[in-house]
Amino acid sequence: MPPRSGGPEELRISGDDDVVRVRQLVRTYAQQTKLSLVDQTKLVTAASELARNTLIYGGGGFARVEEISDGRRSGVRASFHDEGPGIPDLTLALADGWSSGSGLGLGLSGARRLVDEFDLDTEVGRGTVVTVVKWKR
Amino acid sequence: MTADAGDAQRLTEVLRANAESLIDKWVSAVAGLLRGRSTKTELERDFREFFTALLPLVGSDGRDVGGPRFTEIRSLLEEYSRSRVRAGFTPTETASSVFSLKREVFELTQDDPSLHREVLVFSGLLDSLGLLTFESYARVREEIIREQAEQLLELTTPVVKIWEGVLAVPLVGTLDSARTQVVMEKLLESLVETGSEHAIIDITGVSAVDTQVAQHLLKTVVAARLMGAECIVSGIRPQIAQTIVALGIEFGDIVTKASLADALRHALRREGVDVVRREVG
């Protein structure tokens, strides 16, 4: 794990307003790290998708955002934690166009394509943690 | 801590006897603090009311500030806080109005040691009332914010007619379910009212387009289409375009344009209107 260079910040996700707040927080970090406008938008959009997943499918949880560095470059890491039902079939969940809810089915798979690193840790009955990283180019 | 009735009685007597000069000094102190943003006449009227309501409460240390005895002064202070919020005063300035009386009472009674205990209790009472003002201030401010949020919901979703048969909906900020619902309703109603066949939904002011926003947009477009109108989505900035592609959102056969101007030109052409530049001079 790369050493931390920016203080982490956590936000509770328990309503639609919180999704907006997470988005604003991630945008602030992305701007601080001086990601390009396109990368900022991609990361913010991915965070928006994942925060909404935490809210809708995970029944709420929290988001953690921090600035990171691996010595050569800096980046922003955002992780989304819930203690919901977990994801029983990862392959299906990550397939384009599949949704267990009423969405477009692109949130999780799309978010993965928007970031540089994507890590999904899930256990049925325990919850899900999704961690994404966007590096500064 | 509650002083016995005799001492409380004495402090009340002292306060009543010096009411005029106390109120006068109190008003001057607060007027100085507010640097002329509130006239002395206004302050004097308010403070005289407070003072009158406060006198029977001398002897209480303010712990029962939520009780029935305090009903009158509570409503006075709430009304005062409300007017202060509307007039743009800070919470500190508002609460200081109450705290300022303390200093005047201290000065008045400093030469009479037998009253000190009672003045201490009175000071506790003023603290409670000051905090009450502070709380009312915060509550009123929250009310205002809530009102504004509701007004904003209406304000930020105007549907404007920009040409015969062409409507425009400039979207700004965050597009959530509630907003989309308002936008969709207003757009569909306006389509009927104006008999328009084209609607331009401009998302220049939308900060991020994620799958939920896209889904809301698609629904709105489909609903408009069912009513025989064609929607054009405009204001797709480069970073948004790249994000939409990476997300894998398909806009299908919906016409999208980079700018509102492009969208208008497209709509006009479909309406059979050509814009021609005329030689000037």
From TrEMBL, chain A:
GO molecular function, one term: kinase activity
Residue ranges of domain Histidine kinase/HSP90-like ATPase in the record: 39-132
Recorded superkingdom: Bacteria
Keyword check for Kinase: yes
Stored SUPFAM superfamilies: ATPase domain of HSP90 chaperone/DNA topoisomerase II/histidine kinase
Gene3D superfamilies with a match to the protein in the record: Histidine kinase-like ATPase, C-terminal domain
The keyword Hydrolase is annotated on this UniProt entry: no
Pfam families per UniProt: HATPase_c (PF02518)
Classification via InterPro entries: HATPase_C_sf (IPR036890), HATPase_dom (IPR003594)
Keywords: Kinase, Transferase
Coiled coil: none
Protein name, per record: Serine/threonine-protein kinase RsbT
From TrEMBL, chain B:
Record InterPro entries: Bact_StressResp_Reg (IPR051932), RsbRD_N_dom (IPR025751), STAS_dom (IPR002645), STAS_dom_sf (IPR036513)
Keywords: Phosphoprotein
Domain of life of the organism encoding this protein: Bacteria
Pfam families in UniProt: RsbRD_N, STAS
STAS domain location: 156-267
Alphabetized SUPFAM superfamilies for the sequence: SpoIIaa-like (SSF52091)
Keyword flag Phosphoprotein: yes
PANTHER family: RSBT ANTAGONIST PROTEIN RSBS-RELATED, RSBT CO-ANTAGONIST PROTEIN RSBRC
Record-given protein name: RsbT co-antagonist protein RsbR
Organism, scientific name: Lentzea xinjiangensis
